[in-house]
Amino acid sequence: MTLPVTPSQTVGPFLAIELPWADGPFVVPAGTPGAIVISGRVFDGAGQPVPDALVETWQADPAGRFDHPDDPRGPAAPAPAEFRGFGRSATDAEGRYQIVTLRPGALPGPEGGTEAPHLDVSVFARGLLDRVITRIYLADQPEANAADPVLASIGDPARRATLIAIADAPGQFTFDIRLQGGQETVFFDV
Amino acid sequence: MKPTLPRYASAAGVHPPLDSTAYQSSRLRAPKQPLVPLPQGLTEVTGPLLGPGRVTADDADLTAGHAGQPLGERIIVTGRVLDSDGRPVPDTLIEVWQANASGRYAHVVDDHDAPLDPNFTGGGRCVTDSLGQYRFVTIKPGAYPWRNHHNAWRPAHIHFSLFGRAFTQRLVTQMYFPGDPLFPFDPIFNSVPDPRARERMIAAFDIEVTQPDWALGFTWDIVLRGQAATVFEGTGEI
Questions:
Q1: Does the interface ipTM go beyond 0.90?
Q2: Do the chains contact at B95 and A190, CB–CB below 8 Å?
């Protein structure tokens, strides 16, 4: 049996009524040893901040595994305590979001090779009729990034660079998302 | 033998194109560069399994939690979450939000000159049961004007957010009500290119769900991307 999929519609301007959670940005609780902070701003094609977006992240645990039935390897043992894998942050008036998490591990790629540590990202906003999908890689793992098949599939180094979060300080990363314009972030069709 | 990873079928052609010029807000926000194909790997075929820990039973009743009853037509909205293979999607979080019966959102940026309702906030959530079924009690939202074009009005709708069980299945959409006269004029509804696909966003009035002397019933099933098995090429070793 094949059923036709329900279409996407924009999240609209009023998502704040329901979607932000108090614990949304915390993939792990604040103060967790080894936690990193990824923050950044969402910009539109005029370079203006997007104050009504929702940024969501999904990632492997530090061992590169998922506590999910469709990861044939199963979760890391022991699984990291209070690690949700999922982060959600609404943007503020300056277009800023923030996620507190653990570094994801590298993991086997679907077409062979090894995927560098990354977070999958969904961005929802008024004006986006469907989510847009991107990935966050971490700048302080250049060797893993150089071997990553997804990054390698993007020929233009300037475009590829839009997927790399800048390392500001130990454990602190900046990842801006440009929905449109000269430095438009790479978005994926998955 | 290599383990198998699910592979989720493409929903190409179903969802609205991002650059829908009739929808003004898309002009500075929709990406201009072509999307880059991303092979489905472990990160994409897994996803957050956000279950009962995030909801209480009262969260599915948007008419509760205030000093009194909200104004408007009380309704029941129920249905099933399925994947495109016809399988129910159990234990998955659904989040909803909507305007009140006057067409006003309880949100600071909504300046529509219609009354707020002190007994209605308009947010709710529930988790599907083992058969993929969900059920909300709420009031029918009103239509409301917006500034997209001259005399622009949104048809009545309820926003739905769904996770499914994989990153690929994540869906945010809107549920509409049958027979709405505003459908032909709404660029968001009509951003879905296929008219039959638009119909899939419209709930059905259901006399069986309707409760005598209490509430009208609407049924709406939601279909997420389904899967077909493929070979997992990774070694499983890092």
A1: yes
A2: no
